[in-house]
Amino acid sequence: MKDLRYRDEAMAKKILARLREMDLRLRFMHVCGTHQDTLVRFGLERMLAEAGITIGQGPGCPVCVTTTKEVVEAITLARAGVTITVFGDMMAVPTPIGSLADIKAEGADVRVVYSVEDALRLSHEVDRMVFMAIGFETTSPSTAYALLNDPPKNFSVLSCHRLLPPALRALFAMGEVRIDGLIQPGHVATITGLDVFSEFAGPNGVPQVVTGFEPLDLLMGVYMLAKQVKEGRSEVENEYRRVVRPEGNPRARELLERAFTPVDRAWRGFPVLPLSALEVSEDLAEHNARLVYENVLKGAPVVKEDMGGCRCGEVLRGIIRSEECPAFGKGCSPKRPMGPCMVSREGSCNISYRYRE
User: Which CATH fold would you assign to the domain 2-62+166-238?
Assistant: First the structure.
């Protein structure tokens, strides 16, 4: 293990030296909270900056892009006596009417689960169960599998699943930040394959590399992007070949097509993005929480999307770094978050706060 560590360090130094030799000043973006964690935790952010490479985080945190309106839907259902199951990172996301953790403290039945399978098991213990489903193409196939395999009649899904490509289209269309290349998330590509990113390549696009999550993966992905820039190419390359196949996972995509329908929906920090979210399909309407509890949700309060002082939306669009938000580390911290970017462990603000010097 010690020899392996030394070999990794030697390889990292070699990659960084090659980047310095290129003498480029580039701004890349990734769309994955795990990539951000790797960048900051291992000091790669500073090392790459010294080599002329800046990397910003885009809308790659599932908790962060889930809107206040969707959290309020779950709170409204819980207050009406429906059992809500949800991933732990969602519990502390603040809204103008409180958080899921707040209403749990008030007596509502809100339970943290680690998977949709946990929610299915718990549904046998209660009268009415809703699973608040978040995440991109990485986690949505498991929700699809649960929906398609005869779930209990009292089980329904509040789908907050998102699709990544529409957000990338929006980033390019809005043109708020300069992007010289994209680090694409390896786990999403495991499902989608590589073709889904091809629309962002070519003469009018940018270099892209599908990258894994270890420090060497990320450094090699950055090197491959810089090499494309140096050579005047804009292609989709696959650094994560040990996991990602060019065709992705056709079986998982088939499940998504059967269980969900793409719909227009707003993202935190973005306007309504066409066909950017997954709603439970009509064939499975009896398990769509928005239809099952339609009358309850009509009473959900209308709320503002962002809490005052929180600039999470700008962080998600890559306009500012977390540290540039006036509330960072002052009024906003993991113990008292003002927005989801400080709540989720995949959120840029939470990561920057945990690893700050």
Answer: Rossmann fold (3.40.50)
